[in-house]
Design goal:
This protein has about 180 residues and is of the alpha/beta class. It is built from 4 helices and 7 strands.
């Protein structure tokens, strides 16, 4: 995935901790996008089945102002969400590639163009695309803990854009 430039690591003991981290990330992504209205971010969500990827995605998207349900795109591969932040409109494309059988499936479905529109792509199971995805700005690694809603989350910036987002979050550290 590339060299980690900056990171945030947090042990979440319960879902409320995960929600707080995702909402902090949402606030930072929102700030970045309103300062750079034509920008696009690519965010990977990695972790085992049940590690909390969709939960994190839900709190992130809702933290950016989406008031409806955020459902897992397991069967549709992608769910788009329109976000209005200040005077700007953005699209969050939430992907779940878990059921993909071929790395080129997402491209054949026409999803490649979503990686250029203002906003961001949030991709669960990016490894299923076999290296066909664009470079990620941020990779979020989730590891489930012993307790039901316990998890260890590492957010790692992979590009200058990713660093711009992470540096405004609490818990930001440089290598």
């Amino acid at each position: 995935m590339g060299k980690t430039q900056a990171s945030i690591e947090q042990h979440c003991r319960q879902e409320a901790d995960t929600a707080a981290l995702a909402k902090d990330c949402a606030a930072s992504v929102s700030r970045f996008l309103t300062q750079n209205p034509s920008a696009h971010l690519n965010i990977a969500l990695e972790g085992d089945l049940g590690a909390g990827k969709t939960t994190f995605a839900r709190y992130l998207i809702q933290g950016m102002g989406h008031e409806g349900k955020v459902k897992s795109p397991t069967y549709t591969l992608c769910e788009p969400y329109s976000l209005n932040i200040e005077k700007y409109s953005f699209i969050a494309h939430h992907f779940d590639l878990y059921r993909m059988k071929d790395p080129l499936e997402w491209q054949e479905a026409g999803f490649g163009e979503y990686f250029d529109v203002p906003g961001f792509c949030l991709i669960e199971w990016p490894e299923k695309a076999g290296g066909t995805l664009p470079l990620f700005d941020i990779a979020i690694y989730l590891n489930a803990g012993i307790e039901e809603n316990e998890r260890q989350i590492l957010m790692a910036a992979k590009t200058a854009l990713g660093i711009s987002v992470l540096k405004t979050m609490s818990g930001y550290t440089t290598p």
